[in-house]
Amino acid sequence: MGGIFMQIVILMILAVLSVAFFRRIHLPPILAYLFAGLIAGPELISLFPHPEDMHLLAEIGIVFLLFSLGLEFSLPKLLAMRNLVFGVGLVQMLMTMLVFSLVLLFFDFSIPIALIIGGMFALSSTAIVIKQVTELGILNNRRTQLAISILLFQDLAVVPFLIAIPIMASSEHVSFVSVLLQALLKGVFVVALLLSIGKWVLPWIFREVARSRTDELFVLTTILIALLAAGLTYAFGLSMALGAFLAGMMLGESQYKYQLEADIRPFRDILMGLFFVTVGMQLDLSALATHGVWIIPGVLALMLVKVLLVRLATRLFHCNPIDSWAAGFKLCQIGEFSFVIASLAATQGVISSQLASILISMGVVSMAITPWLISHSKSLAERLVGIPEYIDSNDQEKFSSEGLANHVVIAGFGRVGQSVARLLKMEAIPFVAVDIDPVRVHESLNAGEPIMFGDACQKDILTGAGLAQAKLMLITFDFPDKAVLLIDAAKKINPEIEVMVRIKRDYQLDSLYQAGASHVVPEMQEGSLMLISQVLHYAGVPMSRILKRVRAERKGRYDHLHGFYPGETTEISYGTEDKLEFIHAIVLNKHASCLGKSIEELNLSRLRINVRGLRRAGKEATNPDKSEILQQGDVLIIAGKPRRVERAERFLLEGG
């Protein structure tokens, strides 16, 4: 038990260090997991001499991945994509399998082995493609949807291979057609069963779970449903991933979709990392060293042919050229199910273990190249097409602020920035938004919003947004320190520009005003003012007096809204103790050292404490006169930071 524990700890250390290093050199985490697996595998430190022992646990990562993918789809959406799934997907699979099988027959491989290896080469990696496009935020564009359609058919096509390999190895005479027909009937039954459960049973289950308002139960139910669906299809000889995808697809139409996705993500990401680690463990360095002269060129040739065949298959269905080439670059690797087929074929004696090692090595090498190809798939496709009339509707041209004047620059295009932008549109006031979130910028550009990608603190970005000609800049993100830097950069470009800053709390009002902000709007205090206005209005206070009161509070930097009485449940987290302001009532008993002294004489301002009120004989005086002499039984109300309030109380009661 202790040995297994240490193995897992060492593996996690390797994974953490690898991901951190690869992130530092701007490479995707998938490569880091492959690298960690290579180190931990039998070829180097042999942390896990038998990587196949971890295969089932790692495959659960694929189950969760496909469950998450299913949440992005719905049955109507899948039916709308049927021409791509069963059209382009089928043609791509058959063409790729046929081409590589013919090549292998030319090199004197037997027909069964040629068909198996051809099928392996035709498959692509659902795991690596979905994970990478999700990280890049391009899951829902047309190019990726085309690639996913082909992947869905490939996952279905795995089933005949898993059935055919044992039959090829068996000495008994078995009708291959009858076995496939039985598998087809089982597949139809299982799919119909899952769709029925997903439509009538799962919504009721999650409705009852949601009513319990127990987060743990919701998470456990989500995991259980994904595993049960995967287990059901696996029990009928189908892919576990197919069952998880169907379960996710049925729940994708429910109102619980986003919560389900949030619940499953941590388990999915951890187990997917484990999956890629196990893939890295299967890289046979001895086979790579012995046959590397052929493996590397062979992988490059294979990937090139697969790109061309995907383009040819999509051309038959009149797909957009840029989408087609980009999908080809995403799908040109060897898939994880190819490893399953290779292992099964080697176990059944259909192919040799050495050939299986070579094929798995080719798959790992192709997977290592894939993240770069996916990231650059669109630019590579555009270079190949090179025809200006092919304009991708999913990627609009970069926004240009040329010709704009007297507009508003919105730094940060989150919920607040977008809300402001909508109202500016209603008043026909031009604006330019700047945001550093690539997914948000991509979605906004698709919707035709005037937005630029970049860090607003950089002068080049502000210049590109036309800040020199703008009349107002709005900073919407709640990072006061970064806002100070942004104000400084903006003032250097346009010293006359008005700068409005939105923050959540008013902890750093002074520093922002000192940096040059024209207006600082603390969200919490402004929300309180709006609530107070409503209360006063319904209490019968004239609107003119309410407006006067609100203006006075804003002018006084929300002085009357500062501080609160702490309670038993008040939490003071690290880093906030110097930002909070408490109001505290101190009862002056007969032993208080401050009795007989005036408020002015006590000089509480040196302790950076404000006296808010004095309560005597049941009557309270707000902002009492400083000459007031304190008496036994008085209640002095003070305000300040928690530690200062404590010091002031000790001073008033004990002296010193």
Going across the major beta sheet, what is the strand order? 3-2-1-4-5-6
- Tell me the fraction of residues in β-strands, as a range: 5-15%
- Class based on secondary structure composition and strand pairing: alpha/beta
Question: Helical content, roughly?
Answer: 55-70%
Query: What is the global morphology?
Result: elongated
Given the structure, what is the number of helices?
Answer: 27
Q: Round the mean pLDDT to the nearest integer and report it.
A: 78
Could you tell me the number of beta strands? Answer: 10
The poorly predicted ranges are 388-397, 567-578
What distance separates the N and C termini?
61 Å
The major sheet is characterized as: 6 strands, parallel
Rg over alpha carbons = 33 Å
Q: What do these coordinates show?
A:
With 656 residues, the protein is of the alpha/beta class. The chain has 27 helices and ten strands. The chain has helices at 2-24, 29-40, 55-71, 75-80, 82-106, 111-122, 126-136, 142-169, 176-200, 202-212, 215-235, 240-251, 257-281, 285-315, 321-330, 336-347, 353-375, 377-385, 415-426, 438-446, 459-464, 480-493, 509-515, 523-538, 543-555, 599-602, 642-654; strands at residues 408-411, 431-435, 451-453, 472-475, 498-503, 519-522, 582-587, 610-616, 619-622, 635-640. A six-stranded parallel beta sheet has the order 3-2-1-4-5-6, sandwiched between helices. A four-stranded antiparallel beta sheet has the order 7-10-8-9. The relative contact order is 0.07. The model is unreliable at 388-397 and 567-578 (pLDDT under 50).
